[in-house]
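Work Package 4 report. The design task specified in the project plan requires that, given a folded chain encoded as structure tokens, an amino acid be chosen for each position. We show below one input record used in the internal validation round.
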């Protein structure tokens, strides 16, 4: 694959993936059966502040990105794009989709949201434009503290879920199902959407894309 074609494909994967990630998060919200860990926090803060969940996601993402500075993490194009595009796509999807009450509709929405999240994760990570701000926080803390990635991820996500739940975020069967399935799903779609890196690399990619760190649950 020519370098220019490869770069174009990576850009498309990045922005399609981030858009689908926001869409998948919105489907989980509409299902009302439980959100992914950071989604619980975003929803809780949205209910507390009166802001939309997408705007809260952007604010939290930007705040987490600031924490990269003392951790000496280097963001990439995908990192910065993640902060804004996921929240925008989430609010757009929620604005276009109606509230649902029937479990016969909510359950398929939950399952579709989880699978779509796996597709989205495979797309944007395979693009190799840098990890999202929340994943970078985890890997940065791992490098600075020497603690395992598994323990850092667990500590961060337990704190995030607990805080979000106290603030009114939705924790349910969907939260558990997401935690159990997103790793295998994302790993599958990483293989599907993998773009072999160019031999010369790229100047806009943050070095050391931590695939195992992002997917290990």
């Amino acid at each position: 694959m020519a370098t220019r074609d490869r770069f174009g494909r990576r850009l498309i994967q990045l922005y399609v993936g981030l858009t689908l990630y926001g869409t998948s998060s919105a489907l989980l919200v509409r299902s009302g059966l439980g959100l992914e860990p950071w989604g619980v926090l975003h929803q809780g803060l949205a209910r507390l502040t009166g802001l939309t969940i997408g705007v809260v996601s952007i604010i939290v993402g930007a705040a987490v990105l600031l924490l990269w500075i003392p951790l000496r993490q280097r963001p990439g194009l995908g990192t910065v794009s993640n902060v804004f595009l996921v929240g925008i796509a989430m609010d757009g999807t929620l604005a276009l989709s109606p509230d649902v009450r029937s479990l016969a509709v909510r359950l398929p929405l939950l399952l579709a949201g989880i699978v779509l999240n796996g597709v989205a994760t495979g797309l944007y990570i395979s693009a190799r434009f840098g990890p999202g701000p929340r994943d970078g926080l985890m890997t940065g803390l791992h490098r600075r503290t020497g603690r395992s990635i598994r323990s850092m991820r667990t500590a961060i996500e337990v704190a995030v879920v607990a805080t979000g739940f106290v603030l009114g975020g939705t924790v349910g069967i969907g939260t558990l199902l997401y935690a159990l399935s997103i790793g295998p799903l994302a790993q599958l779609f990483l293989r599907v959407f993998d773009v072999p890196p160019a031999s010369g690399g790229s100047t806009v990619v943050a070095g050391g894309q931590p695939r195992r760190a992002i997917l290990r649950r």
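DSSP finds ten helices and no strands in the chain. Validation will be extended to a larger panel in the next phase.
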